[in-house]
Amino acid sequence: MSQLDNANPVIYQVSEDRTIAPENEDDDVIDKIDDREVFDLIRHINDPEHPLTLEELNVLETSRVKVNDDESSVSVEFTPTIPHCSMATLIGLSIRVKLLRSLPRRFKVDVHITPGTHASEEAVNKQLADKERVAAALENSHLLEVLNQCLSQKQT
Fold first, then answer.
1. DSSP single-letter state for residue 139
2. What are phi and psi of 68, to 5 degrees?
3. DSSP assignment of 41-70, as one string?
């Protein structure tokens, strides 16, 4: 087994699940997608190295998710747990894929590393923004299997 990048990560308190009021479940009412709704879609993504979620590791925070429903855009910044995290691209790809699978197709999704938090920030951001590279990555059956493990809900 390979050595972990961050063998003893700090585990953070997670936010409470939102309660959904009956009026929010009315399919006839059109409501805008907001920051918290997008955060709720991605907060339970599993870290590729640890049996923890990206929220538990503070890789994802509500304040770093920005949605503009009117312009159909979503921007997510994520913060790797260490500056040399070798899993940063996989984490970003997991976030991107989860959003592409969950949001209406009209949304443009931008996933990038929080500025100044990773040694290869520019290279990782470039990979995550390249649609052809993302599509090619998703054609790799081994990578897709790892990605789907990150996206599967933990059983509680």
1. T
2. -125, 95
3. HHTTPBPSSSSSBTTTTTSS-GGGEEEETT
Altogether, the residues listed in the chain come to a count of 156
In angstroms, rounded to a whole number, what is the distance separating the alpha carbons of residues 111 and 71? 16
Of the candidates 118, 115, 136, which has an alpha carbon nearest to the alpha carbon of residue 127? 136
The DSSP letter of residue 126 is: H
The structural domains of the chain, ordered by start, are 31-151 (3.30.300.130)
Distance linking the first and last C-alpha atoms of the chain:
26
Q: How far is CA 32 from the centre of its chain?
A: 20
Write the pLDDT tens digit of every residue in 30-56: 789 999 999 999 999 999 998 999 999
Whole-model pTM over 0.70: yes
Quick: pLDDT tens for 102-143.
999 999 999 999 999 999 999 999 999 999 999 999 999 999
Q: How many other CB atoms are there within 10 angstroms of residue 128's CB atom?
A: 23
Cα distance between residue 66 and residue 108, in whole Å: 12
